[in-house]
Write the structure tokens for this entry.
Amino acid sequence: MVWDTMGSGQNDGGGTPASSLPTVSSTSSPLPPQPPSASPKNGTNGTDGKPLTGKVVVLDPGHNPNNRDHTSEIARRVDIGTNKKECDTTGTATDAGYSEAAFTLDVSRRARALLEARGATVKFTQDGDRSYGPCVDERARIGNGAHADAVVSVHADGAPAGDRGFHVILPKSVRGGGADTSNIAAPSRLLGERVRGEFMDATGSAPADYIGDGSGLNVRGDLGGLNLSTVPKVFIECGNMRDPKDASELTDPKWRERAALGIAQGITDFLNR
């Protein structure tokens, strides 16, 4: 676990390296099923009456359920502009073995259903269909190549038990090597603020009490997925999988549906601002 100065253990994908986690078997964290389409909130900004018609959204489900079977591949270091970091990590898990990778896919699929119902074109960086990864630099390139109007990377944290709440990670304005976020830092903050507000309303969750000074926002310049992005992008850590109270929410399908609604509505608010 790499600890930043705020006290949260996160590498580029968020979460905790596998070596410090309980073993997660393939049977304990199956891929979540595709959710049915859900009814969106009303909106009339699109040409066909759908508020996000013509918009492109990229959802980046953190980690990959198969990463744990490819530890040497994901340990390969890649250029994130300002330095080099691991390609990806396994992510974290609850004490009962529910993996962050399964969580992020489930929430992202639920959010996709909502956004597509609103007329958006939604693309994933991975949908459980790759042997591992993609690496963090490729995740950024997918959003850039799609000319996305907004990108949200979905995660859950692996902080110590007793630390609770969610937070949204914003890109720091950095310039160096292949990284230049000077043009996206401001719109990414607007995206992050919208996601924070709607996520809090939808889930009833409080901003993290262990990072971001209780604001629910944290600015970082060490994440390749943000540093290499040329389009507005944020990460959301939906809760702390290592805390029993947060874990009880993260493992609840009904709560995950509310989490997806908060993310989708935050993106909608940003795109319709």
Residues 1-11, 14-32, 35-46 have pLDDT under 50 and may be disordered.
